[in-house]
Write a structure and sequence with these properties.
Layout lengths: L8 E5 L3 H12 L3 E5 L4 E9 L4 E9 L8 E6 L6 H8 L3 E10 L15 E7 L2 E6 L2 E6 L3 E5 L2 H5 L2 H5 L8 E3 L3 H22 L5 H4 L1 H20 L9 H11 L6 H7 L10 H10 L5 H13 L4
Parallel strand pairs: 1-2, 1-5, 2-4, 3-9, 5-6, 6-7, 10-11
Antiparallel strand pairs: 3-4, 7-10, 8-9
Helix pairs in contact: 5-7, 5-8, 5-9, 5-11, 10-11
The protein binds pantoate.
Organism: Dasania phycosphaerae
Function: Catalyzes the NADPH-dependent reduction of ketopantoate into pantoic acid.
Family: Belongs to the ketopantoate reductase family.
Length: about 300
């Protein structure tokens, strides 16, 4: 069925599994989507295998240079370290009142130079998706996605206007404390990812191996100290318990930073433990465990 005449057209910056997942669900509800990526490709036929459904969708990939249309709605799903450069590459195509949703790890959303009437939102998700091959996308785990306003203009507008435009197949929750949610995800990533790289292990081993578990507990204490100085709230006081829950739920996962290293890709470590160490420095707090892990990951990564 062709897209409904007045349905929104979402542009997606970042052609990874999560961006493609949103694209598939938007198409299922007859919204048009265009993926902006570093490589141009004509329309491709893909299949989504999801927990409750299975359907075909098409993906049109353009480079930023090939874009001609004005962008009214933009979803950014790049890696954190690519976010600002990718945004700058399509800035000139964004309408003055564009809606921009940034769905990624870290806090790069706060660095985007948006215009006064552009609405900026951030989102964080526990959805799991991966490409089984270049034609098959798998929505492996139905997670929860929290989404909320970042800039003043987004904060003024009612949630419904945005929520009606988002994929209804996803479990989406609008929240006004999105910064707090981003910090929770950041803290979990700071605790799990680099330690997983150090021990080259799946998430579950971080809690099942007593020696690694003690290191994780100490690391969580250091992260909690920074969160306390920022007055981020009581959730961070029991960080190890929260991290242990995630490590248990994802015990079979190889975390994304270790996956990046194994695939010779640039990691997000500067946006994770690197960001935490920078904040700690600005507060004159010492974070030697995070600093050592940051250096260890950088030493094992391709050029950042
Ligand atoms: O980065 C990751 O891999 C994930 O965010 C998480 C939650 C640590 C699970 O592997």
């Amino acid at each position: 069925m062709p897209p409904a005449q007045h349905s929104p057209h979402w542009h997606i910056l970042g052609a990874g599994a999560i961006g493609s997942l949103w694209s598939a669900y938007w198409q299922q509800q007859h919204f048009a989507t265009t993926v902006i990526s570093r490589r141009h490709s004509g329309p491709r036929q893909l299949e989504l295998i999801a927990p409750q459904s299975r359907f075909a969708f098409s993906q049109q990939q353009l480079t930023a240079v090939d874009l001609e249309q004005e962008i009214q709605q933009l979803l950014i799903t790049t890696k954190a370290h690519q976010c600002l450069a990718a945004f700058n590459s399509i800035q000139h195509r964004l309408s003055d009142d564009a809606v921009i949703v940034v769905l990624q790890n870290g806090m790069a959303v706060n660095t985007l130079p948006t215009r006064a009437q552009q609405r900026l939102y951030a989102a964080t998700t526990t959805d799991g998706a991966h490409f089984k091959n270049d034609k098959t996308l798998v929505h492996a785990g139905q997670g929860e996605t929290y989404l909320g306003p970042i800039n003043a203009y987004a904060k003024q507008l009612p949630a419904d206007a945005l929520m009606q435009q988002l994929p209804s197949a996803l479990h989406l929750h609008y929240c006004l404390d999105i910064e707090q949610r981003l910090w929770r995800k950041l803290a979990i990533n700071c605790a799990i990812n680099a330690l997983g790289v150090k021990y080259q292990c799946r998430n579950g081993e971080l809690i099942s191996n007593a020696a690694i578990r003690q290191e994780l507990i100490d690391l969580c204490q250091e992260i909690s100290m920074v969160a306390a100085a920022l007055e981020l709230g009581p959730w961070f006081d029991n960080l190890y318990q929260e991290v242990a829950k995630v490590a248990q739920l994802t015990h079979n996962n190889i975390n994304s930073t270790l996956q990046d290293i194994n695939q010779g890709k640039t990691t997000e470590i500067i946006a994770l433990n690197g960001y935490l160490c920078d904040i700690a420095k600005s507060l004159q707090l010492a974070t030697p465990l995070n600093q050592a892990l940051l250096e260890l990951v950088l030493a094992n990564s391709p050029a950042q």
